[in-house]
Write a structure and sequence with these properties.
Helix content of chain B: 55-70%
GO molecular function (chain B): RNA binding; translation initiation factor activity; translation initiation factor binding
Radius of gyration of chain A: 28 Å
Order of helices and strands of chain A: HHHHHHHHHHHHHHHHHHHHHHEHHEEHHH
GO biological process, one term (chain B): formation of cytoplasmic translation initiation complex
Subunit structure (chain B): Component of the eukaryotic translation initiation factor 3 (eIF-3) complex.
Shape of chain B: elongated
Largest sheet of chain B: 3 strands, antiparallel
Organism (chain B): Pholiota conissans
Number of helices of chain B: 42
Subcellular location (chain B): Cytoplasm
Largest sheet of chain A: 3 strands, antiparallel
Strand content of chain B: under 5%
Number of strands of chain A: 3
Oligomer: heterodimer
Strand content of chain A: under 5%
Structural class of chain A: mainly alpha
Distance between the termini of chain A: 59 Å
Number of helices of chain A: 27
Strand order of the largest sheet of chain B: 3-5-4
Chain lengths: ~475, ~850
């Protein structure tokens, strides 16, 4: 099953520290020999300041050998450096934590700097000490501390370069400490930063880019986006609403393009998320209280994901994408069932991110299969359907009853136990219903257009929108008649 | 040959004279070496004296010196020298006589008052005098006399004319006034002489005679040159040169005098009446004579340029022999420069004395010489293309010429190696582009042959087939170099060539992704024509690639645009389009002709059309069958196909198919009728498929597609007549496996193309028929239209807002001219991001997001 393991492709896009959980997970799954995994962990740890951890790993690998002396030396260095940095940082922290200062600080960073400089003699260099200490703490595994310091640094510093770096550091720390809400917030701000920062550069170079030039800003942006995509997997698959948010983000054109160009393997997670959020999207299960209304993008996630899977088929394929493809492109339920089985056993069981969702995934996938099956068929043999769902007949029956009860299918579908079939009687949609469907969101969309136009201040266009807005309700009326 | 040249070169008035000279030179045939030695320096003097009078005496001295230089090795020179003098003296006399003859005619004209004749004669006279003047010979007294006489007669005539009652005829009067002007001007030019003459005519004449006698020794030599223009002179020399033995030549052109000779040739270059063949011959001799690298480089530079100068306007292309020697010389040049890093050829150098030998020692290191190897390579390549354009592609000559591509390719590779070594990035980019252009569109075997030839040469570029392993890798490495170089035109062309190469190797996805990511379709209409042609070729090749790979829809969409224009050949530069309503100017026609691709690079348009029509058929026929109402019928995917189909429908009688089109049209009809076997047989019997590299697999693929689409068409067409239809029957009828039948039917149901459902236990399709009333139908149509309108508005807003962020849809409003990109774009975008319907909702979502952003007081990030 190792062929479906993505750790090797993912790790290059992750931070050293973020890779530890992945490796630990690999150790648990037993896909690879335990020693190899431990060696890999050791190699990773060697580069950090987590000497104790590295030492213990070393002892685990080579039980008889003595631990290299360099660790002790390095350790000493690190401890002294730690103290020094801490002192530097403490000076700043003292000032900031002073309630007077906290009150005096404003939005404007330059003003803040000036204020701190005038009243407390804090210079930019000292503030940078916060960053250095934060980074150092991160490097030896004190993620909470690192997150704290980096946060303070970001509030004060004006250096864009270091700020971005602090952003990444804070995100990593939050991920590693498992504070998913904070991490999510952090992720969103980071994403905004990446998207906006490159925007002017993109506009300016649009023409040159059109000529096939790979320009550095664009390339850098693609690069950071790729990283964001990978890092965000941690957040999205741990946060309660992560899956829908993942769809929101990854299906946005920019990120979809990023995935298609630089990391098609992320399609697995996209596909999985689409399947997982299918039920929620259809509004069938009462979603977590307070969850925001799912957007259209999420609602039609499956369709979009299938399209992407189709186009990228030549680049990436695994049982999960295969399942969607067989189900929605080929409509070959038999093969879809096979792929699903493989996906659950081969991929999800061993995947670091998806492991927890194995059952939910299976459930949702079954739902999808039966939905498609029932929609196409007029009369379904329960036995056959159960087989399609990898269930025994009894279980299948139960499942189907639940399905009918839970979904709106109840009106059209009836189980005929005598013949052991489900009769689905779906009357064709009346024409006026389709017309209403078609024109339903036109008014809203037009309104949105109007607002957008007003914002850009184009009067002429607005008039057009108004006409549009008038036309739309009329059409509904026609439909109604 | 020489006679011919002379006659062609001479003007009418002196043809008899030059004939004379020819005779005399033939007479002198027994002593050939002599006149040549004398003639040669004379020519250079002629050139110099032409410049200004003041320097004449000095140049005479110089020529005397060189006379001695040249003649030292020869004995008995002096008595030989007399002979031409005698002859030439008579020539001068003759010239005078001629002048006098014109004077006579003029006098006669005066008597009968024929000013037209006088005017003509006077012009002739002035011309003669002008020539005389150029040679700094004294102006004959006769001329001055004539002038003075003429002036008085003109004045008198004018006077008479005023008084006369009967005016002379219009042309004559005009000639008279013209004469007046001319005489006035001539007198003004020779003011001093005229004055002298008027004071004392006899003294003036005496003075002239004295002058003539004094000037006699140098004048005759010059005189002979005067008599015949430059071309004649040199030809005459050549005649004699060829008979000279080796020793004589060495004396004539030595490495010491090489720069002087070179300069002489260069000065004559581009002048009227310069014999280019002769120049080339001189230079060829000079190359052999050249002793140092510096000399060789200089002479080669001149020689190659003059080879390219040869017949620039007369014929359409360079003769192959000349081209081959130019190619060899470029090779030679490159290898000299490549082997000796102390010499460098640059387009811009500091000024240096052309006549002085230079070496690394005198220049402190590198000797820089003005010239440009890259432009020679460019020119060689262009000439090669031009010759291919003009040779009949069906003759053996074409094939022979094509064989020269190998040597050209070697030269290019060698130049690349040279530029790599010297690290000149700009010419290196150009030379790599040239190389790429020779291989990108060729099948592997040809590239291997070319590379094998290039491999033999001693200087090799860093990128070769043997190093890279496969042609794709080679093309890749060449392209990558060009991507990295700064030149955006080269980058674009490299990109297109790379895509073309991928498409040629059936790597559809890579090619498509590259094309889409390059965003070339947005800017290609502002590119130059050659690049646009390359773009068209690339798109077409991509379409063919999709077809070969069985991606029918993609192939259809890609090829559609170019076929809608109905100017396929023109757009691919494979033939000139006859425009119905406007006539092209000759210049346009010429430009168009120059753009044409040589035959061996053509993409077979018939094959292209077959691929397009077949894929159109497979897309369009099921669609046609699915449409019930007339209105919807207007929604056409492929107009050219639809037009052909309509035309075929109107035919009362259809015979057995002959052309490819006939085959496809009849196949389409068969497909419409559900006879997929007939359709398949018709399509497979098209002969042109044999030109496809993998004809059998393509045919198999087509058969399978026909089965599938036949099934779909059948279902669409006959669904209303059934209430249930057994799946196994369908599978038997279309000989498809049951599974794929189920899959196809399910797909149709899922996509709501077919209102039916499957009954699993019975293994049948159950159809549900919905009858739609007229008003319902109209309502549905208007809803569709509204949706389309909102879409359009959103798109318009997209453009207005600059298309940043999520508003990625692009403008479709390009002109028809900008073929390929539109559907390509639409399709590509659609595939990569979302489909048409998904797109609509997706946008709506983004709108609502935009609103949400606005509420809490955020300024919309993408608004500005």
């Amino acid at each position: 099953m190792a062929e479906y393991d993505l750790s090797k492709t993912l790790i290059p896009y992750l931070d050293r520290h973020l890779s530890f959980p992945l490796l630990a997970h690999l150790g648990e799954t037993g896909l690879f020999p335990a020693e190899e995994v431990t060696i890999a962990q050791y190699e990773l740890a060697k580069g950090t300041n987590m000497f104790d951890y590295a030492k213990s790993l070393f002892e685990g690998i080579y039980p008889g050998k003595t631990v290299p002396a360099e660790f002790d030396v390095k350790r000493k260095n690190a401890v002294s450096k730690n103290e020094r940095l801490q002192q530097e940082a403490q000076a700043v922290l003292d000032v900031i934590e002073n309630p007077d200062v906290a009150q005096a600080l404003r939005q404007d960073k330059n003003q803040n700097l000036q204020y701190l400089k005038d009243n407390y003699g804090l210079t930019l260099d000292q503030i940078n000490a916060l960053y250095n200490f934060g980074q150092f703490q991160y490097s030896y595994g004190n993620y909470t501390g690192a997150a704290d310091y980096l946060y303070h640094f970001r509030v004060l510093s004006t250096d864009a370069e270091l700020n971005t770096s602090a952003h990444w550091g804070k995100l990593a720390s939050d991920i590693l400490t498992g504070r998913w809400d904070v991490a999510l917030e952090e992720l969103n701000t980071l994403r905004d930063a990446i998207d906006t920062r490159a925007a002017p550069a993109l506009l300016g170079t649009g023409a040159a880019q059109a000529l096939g030039a790979v320009l550095d800003p664009a390339l850098a942006q693609l690069h950071s986006r790729t990283w964001v995509v990978h890092w965000s997997l941690f957040v999205y698959f741990n946060h309660p609403q992560g899956r829908t948010l993942l769809l929101e983000t990854f299906l946005a054109p920019t990120y979809l393009n990023t995935i298609q160009t630089s990391c098609p393997w992320v399609l697995r997670y996209l596909a999985a998320a689409a399947i997982l959020s299918r039920k929620a999207a259809a509004g069938l299960t009462p979603a977590v209280a307070g969850a925001p209304a799912v957007s259209a993008r999420v609602r039609h996630a499956i369709r979009e994901v299938v399209k992407v899977i189709q186009t990228e088929e030549y680049q990436y394929q695994d049982p999960i994408t295969e399942f969607l493809r067989e189900l929605y492109v080929e409509f070959d339920f038999e093969r879809a069932q096979k792929a699903l089985k493989e996906a659950v056993e081969g991929v999800l069981a061993n995947d670091f991110f998806l492991g927890e969702f194995k059952d939910e995934f299976l459930d949702c996938a079954r739902f999808l299969v039966s939905e498609a099956y029932v929609r196409i068929h007029g009369r379904v043999d329960i036995e056959n359907l159960s087989e399609r769902l990898n269930l025994s007949q009894e279980e299948g029956e139960k499942w189907i009853v639940n399905l009918i009860r839970e979904t709106r299918m109840g009106a059209d579908a009836k189980i005929d136990l005598e013949k052991n079939v489900i009769e689905i009687n779906r009357p064709p949609q009346p024409v006026y219903q389709t017309v209403i469907e078609k024109t339903r969101q036109l008014a809203v969309r037009t309104q949105a257009l109007g607002v957008a136009t007003a914002r850009s201040g184009a009067i002429a266009q607005q008039q057009q929108q108004q006409q549009q807005a008038e036309a739309a309700p009329r059409a509904v009326e026609v439909g109604g008649n | 040959m020489s006679r011919f040249f002379r006659q062609a070169g001479d003007s009418d008035s002196e043809s008899s004279e030059s004939e004379d000279e020819l005779m005399s030179s033939e007479d002198e045939g027994q002593a050939p070496p002599k006149p040549s030695t004398a003639a040669k320096p004379a020519m250079s003097r002629f050139l110099r004296t032409a410049g200004s009078d003041s320097s004449s005496s000095e140049s005479e001295e110089e020529s005397d010196e060189s006379d001695e230089d040249g003649g030292e090795g020869e004995s008995g020179e002096s008595d030989d020298e007399d002979k031409p003098q005698i002859r030439i003296l008579s020539a001068v006399d003759k010239r005078l006589k001629e002048m006098e003859a014109t004077g006579k005619v003029m006098e006669n004209g005066l008597k009968i008052n024929d000013w037209m004749a006088i005017s003509n004669e006077f012009d002739k006279l002035v011309r003669m005098i002008q020539r005389q003047h150029n040679l700094s010979e004294p102006i004959p007294a006769f001329y001055i006399r004539t002038l003075v006489n003429l002036e008085t007669s003109v004045n008198a005539a004018l006077q008479k004319e005023k008084e006369a009652k009967k005016k002379m005829n219009a042309t004559n009067a005009k000639a008279l006034t013209a004469m007046k002007q001319k005489v006035k001007k001539a007198i003004k030019d020779n003011e001093s002489e005229v004055k002298k003459y008027q004071e004392d005519p006899e003294a003036f004449e005496r003075e002239y005679l004295a002058l003539l006698a004094h000037a006699a020794p140098p004048a005759p030599i010059a005189g002979s040159r005067i008599a015949a223009p430059g071309a004649t002179t040199t030809t005459a020399e050549v005649d004699e040169f060829t008979t000279v033995g080796k020793g004589g030549k060495a004396q004539q052109y030595t490495s010491e005098s090489i720069f002087k000779d070179l300069q002489a040739v260069q000065e004559a270059r581009g002048k009227k009446n310069t014999d280019r063949a002769e120049q080339i011959r001189i230079l060829e001799i000079l190359v052999n004579v050249a002793a140092t690298s510096y000399q060789r480089i200089r002479v080669l530079l001149a020689l190659i340029s003059s080879r390219f100068d040869y017949n620039s306007s007369v014929s359409t292309h360079m003769p192959p022999e000349l081209w081959l020697s130019a190619q060899r010389e470029v090779d030679q040049l490159v290898s000299i420069v490549a082997s000796d890093p102390n010499y460098s050829i640059q387009e811009i150098t500091e000024d240096y004395d052309e006549l002085v030998e230079r070496s690394p020692a005198t220049e402190n290191g590198v000797v820089r010489i003005r010239g440009s190897i890259i432009s020679f390579i460019d020119r060689l390549d262009d000439e090669f293309t031009r010759s291919l354009q003009n040779i009949d592609p069906h003759g053996t000559e074409y094939v022979d010429r094509l064989k020269d591509e190998k040597v050209l390719y070697c030269t290019i590779c060698r130049a690349q190696a040279f530029y790599e070594k010297t690290e000149q990035s700009d010419p290196l980019g150009r030379v790599i582009m040239r190389r790429l252009e020779h291989i990108y569109s060729k099948p592997d075997a040809v590239v291997q042959a070319l590379e094998a030839a290039a491999d033999v040469s001693e200087v090799k570029p860093s990128m070769t087939l043997t190093v890279k392993g496969s042609t794709s890798a080679l093309v890749q490495s060449l392209c990558v170099y060009l991507y990295k170089s700064g030149n955006s035109l080269l980058r674009t062309r490299a990109m297109l060539s790379h895509i073309y190469h991928h498409a040629l190797h059936n790597d559809f996805y890579t090619a498509r992704d590259m094309l889409l990511m390059s965003h070339l379709q947005e800017s290609i209409h502002s590119a130059d024509v050659a690049t646009q042609i390359l773009y068209n070729r690339t798109v077409v090749q991509l379409g063919l690639c999709a077809f070969r790979s069985g991606l029918i829809k993609e192939a259809q969409a890609t090829l559609l645009d170019i076929f809608t224009t109905q100017r396929v050949k023109e757009l691919l530069a494979q033939g000139v389009h006859q425009q119905r309503f406007q006539v092209m100017t000759p210049e346009q026609e010429k430009a168009e002709k120059q753009r044409q691709l040589p035959f061996h690079m053509h993409i077979n348009t018939e094959l292209l059309e077959a691929a397009f029509l077949v894929s159109s058929m497979l897309v369009e026929i099921p669609l046609l069958a699915s449409i019930e109402s007339e209105e919807q019928k207007r929604k056409v995917i492929s107009k050219p196909f639809r037009r052909l189909l309509d035309f075929a429908d109107r035919q009362v009688f259809t015979g057995p198919p002959e052309s490819t089109r006939d085959h496809i049209m009849q196949a389409s009809k068969a497909l419409q009728d559900g006879e997929w076997e007939k359709c398949r047989d018709l399509i497979q019997s098209i002969k042109i498929w044999s030109l496809m590299p993998e004809a059998t697999t393509v045919k198999e693929m087509l058969a399978r597609r026909i089965q599938e689409q036949g099934l779909r068409t059948y279902l669409f067409t006959y669904a209303p007549h059934y209430s249930t239809l057994s799946l196994s029957l369908l599978s038997r009828t279309f000989s498809l496996p049951l599974r794929s039948v189920t899959s196809i039917v399910s797909k149709m149901i899922w996509n709501e193309e077919l209102s039916a459902s499957l009954d699993q236990s019975g293994g049948v399709v159950v159809f549900q028929r919905i009858e739609v009333s007229r008003s319902q139908q109209l309502a549905a149509v208007i809803a569709d239209k509204l949706a389309a309108m909102v879409d359009q508005n959103e798109k318009a807003l997209d453009i207005k807002m600059g298309g940043t962020g999520g508003w990625g849809e692009r403008n479709d409003g390009n002109k028809n001219e900008k073929r390929g990109e539109q559907t390509q774009e639409r399709r590509g975008r659609g595939e990569r991001t979302r489909g048409a319907r998904g797109g609509a909702r997706g946008r709506g979502a983004r709108f609502s997001q935009g609103l949400g952003n606005q509420m809490p007081g955020h300024t919309g990030q993408r608004g500005q």
